[in-house]
Amino acid sequence: MSSRLGLWRVLVPVVIGLCVVVWLFYREFDPEVWHTVHFTNRVIWGIALAWVFMLGRDFGYSWRFRVLTDKELRWGPAVRVCMMCEFTSAITPSTVGGSSLGMIFLHREGVNLGRATTLTMTTLFLDELFFVLSCPLIVAFVPSKELFGFGHSQFEIGIRWVFWCVYALILLWTVVLFVGIIVKPHAIRKALVWLFGFRLLRRWQPTVISLGDSMVATSKDLRHRSSGWWIEAFAATTVSWISRYLVVNALFLGFVPSADQLVVFGRQFVVWAILMFSPTPGGSGVSEWLFTEYYGDMLQNAGIALIIALFWRIITYYVYLIIGVCIVPSWLKKRDKKQIK
Questions:
Q1: Taking CA atoms, which of 80, 124, 197, 217 is between 20 and 30 Å from 86?
Q2: C-alpha angle 204/210/216, rounded to 5°?
């Protein structure tokens, strides 16, 4: 594990992100923009509010770990697991994410490995469920032309196509998870094993078998949960994701108060949907470029977009690299002590 979390895995996403930022500055940034940006009380309050919303995201995530463990996991360990998940998300491709290692972090905090696997599967289901239920509401309240049709023909067509493809895949995956961990886990396991028995997919069959076993174990635990438990867990998930999206709203309130806040919020769903399939660690490079292109029409110039994008990435990304670097050594030391015992 220590090799995976080595220094180079921290440096790679940082270097990628900084290279793209330098390229964007060289291509689009006008030095005169700095003269138009005044760090007034409004701007400072906007940046401060963005930090508050990010803390709200961490609170929601930690709250969910508390709920899922029936409050057995104290706030300190819950926050630590949250930080470790965010750190691994920052140093791995978005398709991998930090949630996939959540079971390891929970286990190191004293949660039984089997139960930790069940909890990780549950968090995955709740995250996907929130996205599947929220997107139709956003599309209903935010005009399509504001989400996708804003003047860059090829770009907007690509954004729309990618977004709906990602939504369809997540919807399908959510249905599979729902049936697999709530309704008929054994049937889903059997179907997955059969599907991945074909020659082209056979190399992934052991992983799928493990996934099926996790679904069966998760189902046994979740079928006896009360509606109140589900409501609280989903409420924590909602707080976490909405707070994450509102970070950009806070920055726009500070830098561009005239922007339509509903559109700013709605576009975050599109941004995060696309970043889910980013090949770079933590979406480095892709995030900065996408933000400046996607939100550029709402700003006076590309320079302002770059400044907001930088604050956005510092608050939602780079800070977790720093926190992770501080936490990992003690976490690894704790792990090594347990192994010695």
A1: 217
A2: 135
At position 139, the amino acid (one-letter code) is V
Q: Are 320 and 87 in contact (CB under 8 A)?
A: yes
Separation of CA 272 from chain center: 7
Alpha carbon distance 134, 138 (integer Å): 6
Burial of 141 (0-12, 13-18, 19+ CB in 10 A): exposed
Handedness of CA 92, 98, 101, 107 (dihedral sign): positive
Residue 93: beta bridge partners? 281
b/e map of 181-216 (b: 16 or more CB within 10 Å)?
Answer: beeebeebbeebeeebeeeeeeeebeebeebbebbe
Q: How many CB atoms lie within 10 A of CB 303?
A: 21
In the structure encoding, which two tokens stand for residue 311, read together? 């604050």
Q: Give the pLDDT confidence of 244-291 residue by residue, as tens digits.
A: 999 999 999 998 888 899 999 999 999 888 888 777 666 666 777 788
The Cα 31–Cα 287 span in angstroms is 22
The DSSP code for 202 is: G
DSSP for residue 257 = T
Alpha-carbon Rg for the chain, nearest whole angstrom, is 21
Structure tokens at 161: 């196509």
282 torsion bin: left (phi>0), alpha (psi -120 to 50), beta (else): left
Q: How many Cα atoms sit within 13 Å of 173 on the Cβ side?
A: 17
Residue with the two structure tokens 């972090």: 105
Inter-axis angle of helices 153-178 and 113-141, to 10 degrees?
140
